[in-house]
Design brief:
Blueprint (H helix, E strand, L loop, with lengths): L8 E10 L10 E9 L3 E9 L10 E9 L1
Antiparallel strand pairs: 1-2, 3-4
């Protein structure tokens, strides 16, 4: 996946919230990514969902366009 322009925005943290009962492996949930605007500009970045143990081929990708004024 590509990197974004850190002169425009930076990641300040991530959090995973499980949507299933405790101790259920593979039960699903959501990832929350937090960003902070640094400067004006526009950038596109893509994140991927990789199967366990793989760093080469994502199962799914999401592409975002970020515009900071």
């Amino acid at each position: 996946m590509n990197k974004w322009d850190q002169n425009i925005f930076v990641i300040t943290g991530t959090e995973y919230q499980s949507a299933s009962s405790p101790n259920v492996v593979g039960g699903g949930g959501i990832d929350i990514w937090k960003f902070r605007a640094i400067g004006a500009g526009e950038d596109v970045f893509t994140i991927g969902n990789f199967p366990l143990g793989s760093t080469d081929n994502p199962e799914q990708t999401l592409t975002f366009t970020v515009k900071i004024k």
